[in-house]
Specification:
two-stranded antiparallel ribbon, mainly alpha
C-alpha cells in the first residue's frame, strides 16, 4: 500500500533558489566538464559528445542549455543577462555546426560554464567558487 505524502506542497523561496542553483551547477558540470580526458587534461561534457552528431546534436545541446536560462530567471536574472546567456548558447551551436573544427572547439568553448559565471557575477553570490575542484595534475 502506498504511503500518503504528508510534506508541504510548496517550498520556501529560499529553498527553490537553492535547488535552482544546484540544478544549474549540475547542468553546467554535466554539459561542459563531466569527464576529464587524459591527453587534453580538460573536462569534456555532454555538449562535446552531442556535438559529434551533425546539426541535431548541437540543437539538442542548445535546447538543454535553454533550461539553464529558465533557471536563471527563477533566480532573478535580468532580461539582458538572459539574452547574453541565449547568445552564448547560439554561438556554441553555431561553432559546433562546423564539421570537425566545431567538435574540437566544443571542448574549449564552454557556454554553460560561461553562463553560470555570468549569472554568479550578476547575482553577486559566491556559490560557484565553492563548486570548483582543483585537479592535482593542473598545478
Amino acid at each position: 500500500m502506498a504511503t500518503p505524502w504528508t510534506g508541504p506542497l510548496e517550498s520556501s523561496p529560499a529553498e527553490r533558489k537553492r535547488r535552482a542553483r544546484d540544478r544549474l551547477i549540475g547542468l553546467a558540470r554535466l554539459m561542459d566538464s563531466a569527464v576529464t580526458l587524459p591527453g587534453v587534461r580538460r573536462g569534456v561534457g555532454l555538449d562535446a559528445v552531442l556535438g559529434l552528431v551533425p546539426v541535431a546534436g548541437d540543437v539538442v545541446s542548445a535546447l538543454i542549455g535553454l533550461y539553464s536560462v529558465v533557471q536563471a530567471r527563477e533566480l532573478g536574472a535580468s532580461r539582458w543577462l538572459q539574452a547574453r546567456m541565449v547568445g552564448n548558447l547560439v554561438l556554441d551551436a553555431a561553432i559546433g555546426a562546423v564539421p570537425v573544427a566545431g567538435d574540437i572547439a566544443d571542448v574549449f568553448f564552454r557556454a554553460h560554464r560561461r553562463n553560470l559565471e555570468l549569472l554568479r557575477r550578476e547575482l553577486g553570490e559566491p556559490w560557484l567558487e565553492a563548486e570548483r575542484v582543483e585537479h592535482p595534475a593542473r598545478r
